[in-house]
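Hi R.,

Here's the chain you asked about this morning:
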Amino acid sequence: MSDQTHADSNGRIDYIAVEQSPRFQSLKRTQRSFIFPLAVFFLLWYFAYVLLAAFAPEFMGQRVWGDITVGLLLGLGQFVTTFGITMAYVSFANRKLDPLATEIREELEKAQENA
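And the predicted structure, written out as tokens:
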């Protein structure tokens, strides 16, 4: 069974071989190279917010404008960051992950049809 054909003569796909293929490993590596740094960034940002709320209430309670405080702005920033990360991931997946995943899927479907 080569890297290009992962179906046996009965049309069954060897998913373990697919997972171990260089193209699939490249897909996983590309996804992880995007996800892990952003996850670390967001967790640090989130815990910084929680720690500031717990241990720096004076700072978080500083009024910026009217009843708007630093804590409120940082809390809203959590939502903005979440949406920003989501949009960045969707864009990244559309450009980098989906084309390769589609190629792999179509190759497997073709191999299954031809078996």
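Residues 24 and 97 are 10 Å apart (CA to CA).

Let me know if you need anything else.
M.
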